[in-house]
Amino acid sequence: MPICEFSSTSKMRKIDVHAHVLPKHIPDFQEKFGYPGFVRLDHKEDGTTHMMKDGKLFRVVEPNCFDTETRIADMDKANVNVQCLSTVPVMFSYWAKPEDTEIVARFVNDDLLAECQKHPDRLIPLGTLPMNDVQRAIQEVRRCYSLGMRGFEIGSHVGERSLDHKDFWPLYKVCEELSVVLFVHPWDMHMWDGRLQKYWMPWLVGMPSETAQAICSVLMGNILVLFPNIRFCFAHGGGSYPIIRGRVSHGWNVRPDLCAGDCQVAPNQLDGKLWTDSLVHDPAALELLINYLSPIFQDHIVLGTDYPFPLGELEVGKVVEEYKPFSAKDRQNLLWENAVKMLGLEENSLFAKDF
């Protein structure tokens, strides 16, 4: 991914909460477990790496997806002080047997912890969980928490269960008690097939829709009432939710029989408790996000780029810079301070080099 410096934000400290990583060497889980669906990496002599799934090419990735020193060099070029690293969602493996998903999650998390320890002042691990078995997920949260992990990436749904499902409530209770962040990433847009496969629509339209569905489930599923101190951070600026927020609120008011069964609190009274990243690609969209989801201006929005993939923000901080109403303090809050607060970090443990 090309990395570019960008004007005055290059002098500001930056924590990128949305950056992906893969283990450089992934076991052959298909052979280990005896059934297909798992990803492996095929490193080619020309320096490229093929993500393979069921014998077919899934995606070509560059070394910055799995090589830590390449990542650090890219961070330096982009003037990014700290990255929060989470796996690529295809590694979630929620569809697998729970005991196998747990093995995959432990492997990914151990690799994440080891790579982040190479640069502990620059890299923060956000683990993955076997969400298809909540007790296994809780065990993995506690295990990783004991090793210093303070956040986890989860998918926007687990099979047919959305994030409001009661199966997940014990996990939310533990995450609330430990004060860990759940970073929600859209994935498995399984309904986007046939005519919806054209023009990369599963990624361009399906992912924002998936995130909006996840937010609506959390808001109207009583989750933020039952667990008032839990911190959900949604990728891609909350997806399409900011633009449909008024529609959702109106629907809750006019059809409470369909919308308010699980929660008597209007969604627009709760959405200020959400966190999102800033990955919206457009200053006008950032303004919408600020006005709707962050009641104290922009205090619940954190920098996210989707590194190292091309659909992410290639010029780190560009949208924040182009949003004219921001003061220098506002920009620094979004690029740094808000993430420090969300993640409960000690600032003196983080890299503060002047680029």
TrEMBL record:
Reaction equation(s) it catalyzes: 2-amino-3-carboxymuconate 6-semialdehyde + H(+) = 2-aminomuconate 6-semialdehyde + CO2
Stretches of the chain forming a coiled coil according to its record: none
Keyword field: Decarboxylase, Lyase, Metal-binding, Zinc
MF terms (GO), sorted A to Z: aminocarboxymuconate-semialdehyde decarboxylase activity; hydrolase activity; metal ion binding
Pfam families: Amidohydro_2
GO cellular component entries: cytoplasm; cytosol
Superkingdom per UniProt: Eukaryota
Pathway: Secondary metabolite metabolism; quinolate metabolism
Residue stretches making up the Amidohydrolase-related domain: 15-345
InterPro entries found in the cross-reference section: ACMSD (IPR032465), Amidohydro-rel (IPR006680), Metal_Hydrolase (IPR032466)
Presence of the UniProt keyword Lyase in the record: yes
Broad class of enzyme this protein falls into: lyase
GO process annotations (BP): alpha-amino acid catabolic process; L-amino acid metabolic process; negative regulation of quinolinate biosynthetic process; proteinogenic amino acid metabolic process; secondary metabolic process
The protein's Enzyme Commission number: 4.1.1.45
Subunit-structure text: Monomer.
Family recorded in the similarity comment: Belongs to the metallo-dependent hydrolases superfamily. ACMSD family.
Function, in words: Converts alpha-amino-beta-carboxymuconate-epsilon-semialdehyde (ACMS) to alpha-aminomuconate semialdehyde (AMS). ACMS can be converted non-enzymatically to quinolate (QA), a key precursor of NAD, and a potent endogenous excitotoxin of neuronal cells which is implicated in the pathogenesis of various neurodegenerative disorders. In the presence of ACMSD, ACMS is converted to AMS, a benign catabolite. ACMSD ultimately controls the metabolic fate of tryptophan catabolism along the kynurenine pathway.
Name the UniProt record assigns to this protein: 2-amino-3-carboxymuconate-6-semialdehyde decarboxylase
Organism encoding this protein: Caenorhabditis briggsae
